[in-house]
Amino acid sequence: MLSFDPEKIALPAGHYINGQHQAGEGNALQVNRPSDGLPAGQLYEADAQKVDEAVNIADRSVRESGWASCPPRQRGAVLRRWADLIASDTQLAQLESLGSTRPISDVVNHEIPFTAEAIRFYAECADKYSGDVLPTRDASLGMLVPEPYGVIGAITPWNFPLSMASWKCGPALAAGNAVVLKPSELTPFSTVRMAELAVQAGLPAGVLNIVQGGGAVTGSALVAHPLVRKVSFTGSTATGARIMSDAAFNGMKPVTLELGGKSPQLVFDDAGDIDEVAGRILRGFTANGGQACVAGTRLIVQRGIADALLGKLIELCQCFRPGVTWDENSRYAPMIDARQAAKVASVVSSARQQGAEVLVGGERFADTGEGYFWQPTLLSVISNDNPAVQEEIFGPVLTVQIFDDEAEGLALASHPTYGLCAGVHTKNIDRALRAMRGIAAGTVWINRYGRSGDFIIPTGGFHGSGIGKDLGRQAFEACQRYKSVLIDF
What we know:
Aldehyde Dehydrogenase, Chain A, domain 2
């Protein structure tokens, strides 16, 4: 029985610094439940002084505890124990489901295992990837020696709180760093429990600290702190640009930025079984209520199969039903809050005013009280300048454009701002590889849409979709700086 009563869940209070909860003081922020709009709890925003405390404790702890200098295999053992605790902790799933957009069945069956496995992957990286011996003259020895940065500042979004935290903390801790993490102020609770479990697993207190608050105050203080030597952020392109600027003005620290997307799903008339393709397209733009940077929200379909594919998609879209996230029978995610629901409504309205036709959906579900559930929506558009095509909506809205030949399809798949992901659906391998080469995106999925459990495959975008990579060996290596050494015999 996965269903639970949200009123009976004890929420962890405030910040988690040096292995202790701190209730906090100062500016109070109310946290609401997306499923019904009711208050879930309250947190106090960490100001610059509180962030300074957390960062200084992290800097001292990572040095004095020996976390940075211990044998890498020991760090891996702690992370593996942490992953086991995450996988078995029932409180963690309930906290995630209550305060976020993630239905409890999805959290238990997907989010928790995914989060634990990401930590396990980086536990194995700890002693698998190192420096290099470089070719030099006979009487010398050249080496490239990796070192941890020290303190890494991490900022995670509200759409996948747990798994995004694992993406940031896993590689950083495995490489010997400390982490000060700021979760979204909209979904603050589950990450605190995750940090508690890390200490239970043997991570030295203070090596992982959680500070709560908004981006303007807490996030800015974290990015600007002189002891934060690297910043990793997942979120909007606009916020990523501000973080990049702040990092440049406060010590020239490196940044990893996974940012927004407006990803195409390019479907050729030889894509195969219509039902199978429609299912892929549907999951690509409705998963988590469309609230994913990788969401495939632009359908570009060849004319020969357009009617059949759209007919099936319309049928599937009409099958969704809203339900609170703490009910095990719920499968469809709400919008995170009223502001996000209003944004979706605004873009859909603007799109219609500029000629888009609503094929299905186009409004909030009725009779959901104060919950923010938006109907899966298909918008047929003609102009590439339509706001629904250009803007990242972050909701279950799919634009539809029809093309005749390959060149036209590839032209429509390009985007002036974003280059995060793309899906290509065709049984012709030559066409698939041409499309892969022709689309500017950091990830291209062929005859699928969405990530797998293969953590070795990195993710990250081109252009306005980001800098650097999460996941893969690349994320681990990005949490180290490399020192060149040359020794004369």
